[in-house]
Amino acid sequence: MYCPICGGKFKEINIGKSCLLLKCKQCGLLKRDLDKCFAHARAFQDFGGNSQLDKWRLANVKLLVDRIINKYFSNRKQSILDIGFGRGFLLKAFIREGHSVWGIDHDQRMVDKVSMDLERSYRSNIIHSELEKFEVPSGCFDIAYMVHVIEHLKNPSIVLGRLYEALKPGGILLIITPNGDSASLRLFKENWWFLEDPTHYYFYNHTSMHILLESAGFKIISRQPVLGESFTLEANSALRWLGFYNLNNPTLTFSSLGLSLLFNLIRIAYPDLHPSITAIARKKDDNNH
Ligand SMILES: [Zn+2]
After folding, report:
1. Is the pLDDT of residue 120 over 70?
2. Could you tell me the domains of the chain?
3. Phi and psi dihedrals of 199, rounded to 5?
4. Between 20 and 30 A from 34 (CA), which of 122, 180, 277, 287?
């Protein structure tokens, strides 16, 4: 089997007694196969942590998108495409501010729930679809984003091709995803919290993300990490290392938050620890080739 990003060969790397990952020898992409790397806590279902923290995390992502709008667009009202909107926090926030927003999600329950929360006139742009197959008008969007989505995709190149088509010339794509090169994976090994989600297939690093985006025609313009992104990753990995697989109780939630503050301070001194990567990329237009 060859790397879907660069065509390189994979080698097996052993990161613990119950976890083998495949790593591309050329670009460093990590491939996760559930048969060889088990998701221990999948019975507890709540992979993403609590919804309040999720709102805070996504509020920071929204600030980043707001900065992108200020920096790259003269018009303040944008046409925005949210791929894998989940609970819909970002999508609803942009609608409230008067942007034109389309959203795609593969989970029918989320599509129904988010649609119910919106006024009728906004619902037609909330689409249930497999992410590899979504259909939106071509050349219509200023900004598209996938926040913790691309690691779930088995065919990322197909989705990026569709996103390239969907964006206007000069349009911007934002991707945030777990960092396969993070020191936190080397530190916590099979207890790395991002391995808890059984639907995480690929972990990218800056090299593999660069190749993927450039192959689709995009040009990367920033990799600045988002403050507080994956806030509890190290703390929850540490608790898992100590044998606490189900973090859904108040004492462990409190411990996780305290430890997370500490680890987020350590990230400032050791950026390699950062558990996620951010890529902001631009579709070529007549002025930026
Ligand atoms: Zn590769």
Report:
1. yes
2. 10-283 (3.40.50.150)
3. -100, 10
4. 277
